[in-house]
Amino acid sequence: MSKETIYTAEVTSRMVEAYTSADSDEARAGVVEAFHKELGASVASVRSKLVAMGVYKAKARKTKAGEAIESKAKIVADIAEIVGVEEEAFESLEKATKPVLKSLRAFLVECSGVELES
Hints:
mainly alpha, elongated
């Protein structure tokens, strides 16, 4: 018994083209949704096909407030850069709460005039 596949070469090439040309999480989700409706396949099936083809990008994780998630280690590294010392010198700062670290970084940026890379 042969099973007819919905992922023909033509469909997969269109899917890859559309997905890779999408420039945001929302646009990529829209492409997945469009192919889900067009093919009658589940969203999980379309996503799995994109994963198998090596083009799927997971959505960027965000906080409840909608901000990008930033690790305390990254914030401490920024503080060390502003002060001009090695990160290891401030490694114990990672024990502080994230709001305190963000406030300290913001204060140091304001006082020093240093611009950090995103």
